Amino acid sequence: MTASVYLAKILGIEGSVLDSLDEEMAKRTGRRGVLEKLYEDNCNFSDEVLSELNPKNRTAPQVREVLRKTVLADENELLGVLAFSEGKTNFEKAASLARKIASVGRGFFLKIEKAEKILRKSQPDNLLTYLGLSSVDELFRKHDVVEAFAALRFVETDEWMHKTFEVAYSGLTAKDLEERDVTVRVLGPEWWGIAKKFVEKKHHNVSHLKEFGVIFINPIQESVAGKFLRDFALMLHYFHEIDFYSKLFRKYAPSADFADKLKTLLRGDVPEVNKVEAGEWLIVQRYLAKENPEDQRLFLPRVNPESIHWLRGERDLTTYKYPNLRVNLKLWHNLDWVGGFYDGDVGQIVSFDLEDNAMSLVSFAEGREEHFNYHQREAMWTKMFMEYAGGEAKTEELLAENFYNGIIKF
Fold first, then answer.
1. Where are the chain's structural domains?
2. What is residue 129's predicted lDDT score, i.e. its pLDDT?
3. Phi and psi, residue 193, nearest 5°
4. Under a CB-based contact definition with an 8 Å cutoff, are residues 94 and 82 in contact?
5. φ and ψ at residue 395, rounded to 5 degrees
6. Helices 354-365 and 227-252 sit at what angle, rounded to 10 degrees?
7. How does strand 214-217 pair with strand 183-186?
C-alpha cells in the first residue's frame, strides 16, 4: 500500500486526491516527500507504542483494548497526583494542577464590566427566576458576574441569546478589552442545577467563555472510567484555545470591523463551499464530523485550529513533570495525529490520540462501546498542512493572517 493510499484510507478520501494535492503543494512550497514522511512516522510511532504495550495480537479489537487499559491506568495515576495539588476539593485541585501545567501567558479579553453592562441591558428574566432574584442589581450583590453570564446559555432561550449577543457584541471596540491571565472557576453550589443541565447536554463538566478568558468546572462528580482524564485534557485544550483566540482578538482589535470579526470567531464560522481551488486549504474551526459525517467539507484539504489546541494541551499533559507519577504519560506525546489499520487491508481505523481513546473508554464503561477517531483525523490533516507550511509556528501565522476569510491559499 502506498503512502497516499494508506493515509487517504485513514482520512476517508481517495488516494488519488492526496497524490494530486501533494504534487500541487510540492510545486508551491518546494517541500517534497511529505506524504512518505507522514506515512513512515505514522507507522513507526504506532509500532513503538504497540511494542511497549504488547497487546495479545494486533487486531483492531486488541489494539483498542490495550489503549483503553492504558488510559485507565494513566487516569488512576493522575488522580493520585491531585493529592499534591492545592485546593479543598478534587475540582479545586484539578483547576490548580491545570494552571501549573498549561503553558500559556496573559491574554487579551473582554473586560468583566462588559458582562455587567450586557446583563443590565438584557434583563435575563429566566436567570433571575432560577436564582429567585427580583433584579439584576440583586444578582450583582449576591453572585459572581462572570458565572452568571456563563449560565445564560442554559436558562435563556436561543432566541433571547441570539438577539442579546447580536446587539451587545455589535458595538465592541478595542477599548472593551484588556490584558489579564486566563482564569479557572469552580462553580459554587448555587449553580448546581445549571451545572447538571450542562453535563447532561455536553457529557463533560468543563466549559469556557473564550472572549472573557474564563474556564469553568461544573462540580458534578462523575465516577465513570475515563471521564476525569477526558475532561482534564479538555481543560488544558481550553487554555490553548483561549490563548489562540486572544491573539486573534489582539490582531483584529485595531480594525474598523473588529466587532464583525469577533462575532465570526465566536460563532465558529466555516466557509460554505464544496470545493477549493488548487493550493487552497479550508480553515475549519469546528469538528464538522460531529454535526454531519457526510459534510462535503470533510473531503477537502483543511487545517483545523482545534487540532492545534489539542496538540498543545496534550503536549502539556504528557510532558509535565508530575510528582510521584508511576506511569509514562509521554507514551501519548505526539500521537494526536496517528492512526492505523488492522485486521488486514480492509481493516478498521484505530486512533492513537489520547482524547479519542479516553472518550472510547467512557463509552465502553457505559456499555455503548463506540470507537472515536475524529480528533485524530482532523489532527492528521493539520499535521499534513504543518509539513507543507513549514511547522507549527508558521501554521499559526498563516491561520492568523487568513482566519477571517476562512481559506489559506499557497
1. 3-85+255-409
2. 95
3. -60, -40
4. yes
5. -65, -45
6. 140
7. parallel
